[in-house]
Amino acid sequence: MKQSRATVRYAKSFIDISNEQGSLDTSYNDMMLISSICSTNKDFTNLLKSPIIKTDLKVKIINELFVGSISPLTISFITLITNKKREGLLPEISNSFIYLYKKNKNIKEVLVTTAVPLDAELRNDLMNYIKKATNSDIELKENVDDSLIGGAIIRMDDTQLDASISSSLKSLESN
Asked: What is the rounded distance in angstroms from the CA atom of residue 172 to the CA atom of residue 47?
């Protein structure tokens, strides 16, 4: 994950303020929304990074876009970084916030790639097993890749467990 010192510093500050205000979970949801918008809407990120658009106009546009969608605390934070000419860092700040929040709450992201979608029972069994093994909350993301033929590839942090049939066939081929 690409993080500069400034983005981490702003994200940590916002986490601290949100914690003091008792609205950490609300701020997390706000940052998830902002991160999603920044990753899907290039016009918005171009607006943030544009040196041509004046700061007061950016603040006005951001307020009109987000009032009612995100908390006043988050709007104040975005206004602050915009006034400090750091609004171009908002996508990275939101991603840093999300990363720090999950680290603070002991939430692990697990990516499971299978040949067919997981059924509810298998998904629950897998989540319970990983939760018990890691002693953390799990955020499961699923990916379907029919080239695996069967089995699964599980990725968490820097660890990957490849129990796919295609991988087994490749290892047999090389022996």
From this structure: 53
- Which residues partner with 112 through β-bridges? 142, 154
For residue 163, which of 142, 146, 149, 143 has the smallest C-alpha distance? Answer: 149
* Integer CA distances (angstroms), 71 to 34, 67, 160, in order: 12, 8, 38
Pairing mode of beta strands 107-114, 159-164: unpaired
Q: Which residues, other chains included, contact 114 with Cβ-Cβ below 8 Å and sequence gap of 6+?
A: 142, 143, 144, 145, 148, 151, 152, 153
Residues 6+ apart with CB under 8 A from 59: 79, 82, 83
Which token pair is 161? 């467990």
Question: What is d(CA 78, CA 76) in angstroms, rounded to the nearest whole number?
Answer: 6
According to DSSP, residue 150 is labeled S
Query: For the segment 122-174, what is each residue's pLDDT rounded down to a tens digit?
Result: 899 988 988 998 899 989 999 998 887 877 788 988 888 777 777 777 777 77
Closest C-alpha to 64, from 56, 121, 20? 56
Look at residues 88, 91, 81, 83 and name the one whose alpha carbon lies nearest to residue 47: 88
Tracing tokens 């951001």 back to the chain, one arrives at 62
Q: Amino acid identity of 25?
A: D
Rounded to whole angstroms, the Cα distance separating 50 from 55 reads 10
Beta-bridged to residue 162, according to DSSP, are 153
